[in-house]
C-alpha cells in the first residue's frame, strides 16, 4: 500500500509540474482566453471596452504627422426630454454631437473620459468600407464583381469560392455563420477564441465550407465577411491594413490620438471589430463621411463611393433595416441618413441633410433586446431635430 501511495504521489507531483509548465508556456494565451470569457461581465465591461490593449494582441495605427484637426465648439444644444433616462438605460459611456462641424454637445459617463480609446466593434466595418473605396479608385481592384478568390486565393475551395467582392460588401456571401453572441458554441464566439488564443483569422475564414444560400441571393449579416474584405485589400495592395488605413484615412483626419487594432496571432488586424479610437476621433471620421468624403479641403474618400456605400443596395426583406457597403440605413431614412453600428451600443449616426454627426459609445448588455436599436435611432433623430 505504501508503495502504491508513493507512486501515486510521484505521478501527482509530475502532473502538477507539467500543468505549471504548460501554464507558464501558455500564460499569454490563457490570459487572453480568460479576458474573452469575462469581457462582457457587468463589473468589467466598461473598463474592458476602454482597455482592450491590456488583454489582446494589438498593433498601432499611426496617426501621421499632420496637425490635430480642430473640432470647434458651437452653441451648446439642449438635449431633448428623455435623453438622461436613455443614457442611463442604455449604459452610454460617451455622447458627442456635431452640428455644422461644431461640437454642440460632449459628455462622458460611467467613469470614462475623452482620452479613452473605446472599442469600435462593428463600426470598424465602415472604416474598412471607406478604405475599400480608395483601393478601388486607385485601381488596385478592377471591379467589385471580381471573385474574392482573385485577390484572396487562400479562399479557393471554401464557402467563399464563387462569391464576388460586391457580395461580401453587401453581406450576401451566402456563407453559413452563426452570429449569436450569447451561444458559447456559435461561430462568432469560436472566432473570438481563435483570436484570444493567437490563432489565424485567415485560416478560420478559409475553414468555412458551408453555405446557406448562393452568393448574392440573400442578405445575412455575417461579420467574417468583413475579414474577407480585409484579405482582399491585403491581396490587392500587398500591404497590411493598419499601415494602409493610416496612410489613406487616419493621417488625413488629423486625429488627436493614434488608434490601434486588435490582432490575431499572425499580427493580422481584426478589421471586423477591433479598431479603437477616442470619441472625438470617431467624430472626425464621421464628419469626413458626412461631408461626402472631404475634410479640410482634401478629398479623402471618393464622393461617389460614399454615395454608393451608404445607399441601401443589399437585398434585405421588406421591413428590414437597409444595408449598403458595410453601412446601415435605418427604416424610413431620408436621403443622407445612415450609420455605422457596433454591438453593445456603439454608433456613428450621420444626417447629411441636417449637417449632423452623432457619436455614442456604450456598454449596453441589453443591446440585443427587441426594439433597442429602433429606440436608439429614434433618440438620434430627436437629437438632430432639436438642433
User: What gross morphology would you assign?
Assistant: globular
Mean pLDDT: 92
Secondary-structure-based class equals: alpha+beta
Contiguous uncertain segments of 5+ residues: none
User: How much of the sequence is in beta strands?
Assistant: 5-15%
Radius of gyration: 22 Å
Order of strands, widest sheet: 3-2-13-12-11
Instruction: Give the topology string: H per helix, E per strand.
Output: HHHEHEEEHHHHHHEEHEEHEEEEEH
Query: What is the percent of helical residues?
Result: 25-40%
Sheet with the most strands, sense and barrel status: 5 strands, antiparallel
Question: Could you explain how this protein is built, in words?
Answer:
The chain is α+β, with helices and mostly antiparallel strands and about 375 residues long. Helix content is about 35%, strand content about 15%. The chain contains 13 helices and 13 strands. It has helices spanning about 1-25, 25-40, 45-50, 85-90, 125-135, 165-170, 185-195, 200-205, 225-235, 240-255, 280-290, 305-310, 370-385; strands spanning about 60, 90-100, 100-110, 120, 260, 275, 295, 300, 320-325, 330, 335-340, 345-350, 355-360. It has a five-stranded antiparallel sheet with strand order 3-2-13-12-11, sandwiched between helices. A four-stranded antiparallel sheet has the order 1-5-6-4. Strands 7-8 form a two-stranded antiparallel sheet. Helix 5 runs parallel beside helix 9 (about 225-235). The N and C termini lie far apart (about 85 Å). The model has no long low-confidence stretch (mean pLDDT about 90).
Amino acid at each position: 500500500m505504501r508503495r502504491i501511495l508513493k507512486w501515486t504521489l510521484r505521478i501527482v507531483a509530475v502532473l502538477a509540474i507539467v500543468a505549471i509548465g504548460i501554464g507558464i508556456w501558455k500564460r499569454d494565451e490563457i490570459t487572453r482566453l480568460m479576458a474573452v470569457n469575462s469581457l462582457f461581465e457587468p463589473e468589467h465591461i466598461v473598463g474592458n471596452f476602454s482597455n482592450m490593449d491590456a488583454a489582446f494582441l494589438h498593433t498601432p495605427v499611426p496617426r501621421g504627422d499632420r496637425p490635430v484637426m480642430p473640432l470647434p465648439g458651437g452653441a451648446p444644444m439642449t438635449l431633448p426630454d428623455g435623453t438622461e433616462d436613455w443614457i442611463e438605460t442604455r449604459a452610454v459611456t460617451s455622447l458627442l454631437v456635431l452640428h455644422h462641424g461644431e461640437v454642440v454637445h460632449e459628455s462622458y459617463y460611467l467613469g470614462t473620459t475623452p482620452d479613452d480609446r473605446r472599442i469600435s466593434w462593428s463600426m470598424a466595418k465602415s472604416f474598412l468600407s471607406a478604405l475599400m473605396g480608395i483601393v478601388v479608385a486607385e485601381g488596385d481592384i478592377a471591379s467589385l464583381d471580381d471573385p474574392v478568390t482573385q485577390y484572396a486565393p487562400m479562399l479557393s475551395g471554401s464557402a467563399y469560392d464563387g462569391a464576388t467582392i460586391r457580395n461580401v460588401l453587401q453581406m450576401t456571401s451566402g456563407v453559413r455563420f452563426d452570429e449569436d453572441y450569447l451561444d458559447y458554441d456559435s461561430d462568432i464566439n469560436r472566432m473570438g477564441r481563435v483570436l484570444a488564443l493567437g490563432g489565424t483569422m485567415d485560416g478560420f475564414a478559409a475553414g468555412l465550407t458551408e453555405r446557406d444560400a448562393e452568393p448574392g441571393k440573400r442578405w445575412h449579416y455575417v461579420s467574417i465577411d468583413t475579414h474577407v474584405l480585409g484579405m482582399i485589400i491585403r491581396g490587392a495592395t500587398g500591404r497590411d491594413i493598419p499601415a494602409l488605413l493610416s496612410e489613406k484615412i487616419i493621417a488625413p483626419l488629423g486625429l488627436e490620438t493614434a488608434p490601434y487594432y486588435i490582432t490575431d496571432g499572425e499580427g493580422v488586424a481584426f478589421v471586423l471589430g477591433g479598431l479603437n479610437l477616442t470619441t472625438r476621433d470617431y467624430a472626425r471620421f464621421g464628419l469626413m463621411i458626412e461631408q461626402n468624403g472631404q475634410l479640410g479641403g482634401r478629398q479623402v474618400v471618393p464622393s461617389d463611393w460614399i454615395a454608393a456605400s451608404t445607399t441601401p443596395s443589399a437585398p434585405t426583406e421588406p421591413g428590414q433595416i437597409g444595408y449598403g457597403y458595410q453601412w446601415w440605413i435605418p427604416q424610413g431614412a431620408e436621403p443622407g441618413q445612415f450609420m455605422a453600428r457596433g454591438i453593445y451600443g456603439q454608433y456613428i449616426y450621420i444626417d447629411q441633410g441636417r449637417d449632423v454627426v452623432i457619436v455614442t459609445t456604450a456598454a449596453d448588455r441589453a443591446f440585443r433586446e427587441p426594439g433597442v436599436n429602433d429606440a436608439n435611432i429614434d433618440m438620434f433623430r430627436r437629437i438632430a431635430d432639436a438642433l
